[in-house]
Design goal:
- The protein has 264 residues and is mostly beta strands.
- The protein folds into two domains: 2-140, no CATH class; 191-263, Immunoglobulin-like.
- The protein is built from no helices and 19 strands.
- The strands form five sheets. Strands 4-5-6-7-11 form a five-stranded antiparallel beta sheet, with no helix packed on it. Strands 1-2-3-12 form a four-stranded antiparallel beta sheet, with no helix packed on it.
- The chain is elongated, with a radius of gyration of 23 Å.
- It starts with a strand and ends with a strand.
Length: 264
């Protein structure tokens, strides 16, 4: 069983393992430093547990999707968060055949308004692409069960669809371009704007870097265009590109800048 528990003013996750009669085997609280809430828990093939929910540990993001993997007695093996600058929440988790996990939820950081958020992860991932390896503190909690009387009643079971649904059409937006890494030097005079963009992107360069290379890659790492930059300001026409995530790469004589751009 999982649920919230308030410790020192914050809401943490509470795990309780019991037998079929309700006798507690162990009960533990999990804290990432903020408020945590869990919406889905499964038992994994190694007799451990995998959980999806959210955490407010990542500041300034209000909520990040939270994934926690424990062993059979509730000790943490892996804990990560995902998300952008707004609300990202995990609502369901499924174990994959290769030992990884599928997580689905919703996001307001990516896409348009509120969008479905789906990902495939492996426990060997290195923390790339909106992923943060976070520390989860485990605390043993002593619980006391109280027997309560239940009244009998009849009910009608109605099946509903899953936690996520699509209200209007669907456009898949890959969030993690492959094959090209985002590179933003600390001291770069190269600017790519606006971001998000619609039909056009503008590139500005220092006046002494006008003979530079410009490339645009899609989320699959495919190069969409390449050209020479011959002025300090260049405009890219993206009206023929599908909306989604792109990487704009600018190579000058002194530096290389690769920036992620969202086309709406």
């Amino acid at each position: 069983m999982v649920g919230p528990i308030q410790i020192d003013g914050d809401y943490d996750c509470l795990f309780v393992k019991s037998d079929s009669l309700g006798t507690i085997a162990w009960s533990r609280a999990y804290d990432c430093g903020g408020d945590e809430s869990l919406f889905s828990i499964i038992q994994t093939t190694d007799s451990g547990f995998a959980v999806a929910g959210y955490t407010t540990e990542a500041i300034p993001a209000p909520h990040d999707m939270y994934f926690l993997k424990t062993d059979s007695v509730g000790l943490v093996q892996f804990s990560i968060s995902f998300g952008g600058s707004s609300v990202d929440i995990g609502q369901d988790v499924v174990e994959a055949d290769d030992g990884g996990y599928f997580i689905v939820g919703y996001t307001k950081s990516f896409g348009y308004d509120t969008s479905m958020y789906a990902m495939k992860i492996n426990l060997t991932d290195d923390g790339a692409c909106y992923q943060n390896n976070i520390s989860t503190i485990v605390t043993d909690v002593n619980l006391v069960w109280q027997d309560i009387e239940l009244e009998s009643f009849s009910s009608l079971l109605i099946e509903h669809s899953g936690a996520c649904s699509v209200g209007r059409g669907a456009t898949v937006l890959p969030l993690c371009p492959v094959g090209v890494d985002e590179v933003m030097p600390d001291k770069s005079n190269v600017q790519v704007f606006p971001n998000p963009a619609t039909a056009r992107i503008t590139i500005t360069l220092p006046s002494n870097s006008t003979r530079s290379e410009l490339e645009v890659f899609n989320a699959l790492g495919e190069r969409m265009m390449a050209s020479r930059v011959r002025s300090s300001q260049t405009m890219i026409d993206c009206s023929s590109f599908a909306r989604g995530i792109y990487l704009v790469k600018v190579t000058t004589s002194t530096t290389t800048v690769t920036q992620r751009v969202v086309l709406e």
